[in-house]
């Protein structure tokens, strides 16, 4: 039997993987585990690797062997003792019907005689009804059942869901560790990609093909011109609205956070290997133009807008981004 392509945790999650497997060996692994942290740091990859390793009949060196029947089934997504819930059919939500299928799965007997596992990602995609439908299963999933929830925004989960899970808060990896993993894959653009992804390496890997990334200097110039009064907030918003609100919220938040840091550092240089060489001069000008308190207020408003979007809001893109630009120039229009 050929070796199956099993999932391996990212280097910065190997210690966490070892801790989880140690818990399992001591029969202390929780029946409901919540892996929480920023998007794009490898939480789903860690969850997949843990699931495949726990299903494997002969794991080796802390990962699934890739050779047994269980590994071939789990990597193909057909293992009868695993269940994966993600948004289906282009939806952004995990619906209650999917949760009902999970509840039914949890009531079954393991077909391979070992444990059974379910993976839900992203957990915040569960709407309120779906989360409520999951509560009893989270509390009493049944013998040998382990549920792994992956969340980028755990604050969007009901407190009753969070309280039934053992949470593991996973931060972004250290910049040097992230760059050592990313650079061989993307080359010299790695620091710029990592900066654009707010330090999340897997997100950075995806961003190299994003339309806005190749256009980032022009977009940053538009923001700077608005801050300097050379462009109206409405004109600046028009350029930004060519991209999805959630995407631009993340980008603007990162740029303004960087400008805030530059302002705090004064004339000090950012450590070598950090930041985006194309954008650094523009962000320094932004830091010199906008008072720190206003930069911080703008980042807060952008974060509030992003939370609304993640919660399901569908705002007018140009109006939302114009409101963000108005805050940047000192007009505190409340987000709608």
From TrEMBL:
Source species, domain of life: Bacteria
Provenance organism: Alcanivorax dieselolei (strain DSM 16502 / CGMCC 1.3690 / MCCC 1A00001 / B-5)
Record-annotated DNA polymerase III delta subunit C-terminal domain positions: 211-327
MF-aspect GO terms: 3'-5' exonuclease activity; DNA binding; DNA-directed DNA polymerase activity
Protein name: DNA polymerase III subunit delta'
Reactions that this protein is recorded to catalyse: DNA(n) + a 2'-deoxyribonucleoside 5'-triphosphate = DNA(n+1) + diphosphate
GO cellular component terms, A-Z: DNA polymerase III complex
Enzyme class: transferase
UniProt keyword annotations, A-Z: DNA replication, DNA-directed DNA polymerase, Nucleotidyltransferase, Transferase
Pfam families reported in the protein's UniProt record: DNA_pol3_delta2, DNApol3-delta_C
Enzyme Commission number(s) of this protein: 2.7.7.7
Gene Ontology terms: biological process: DNA-templated DNA replication
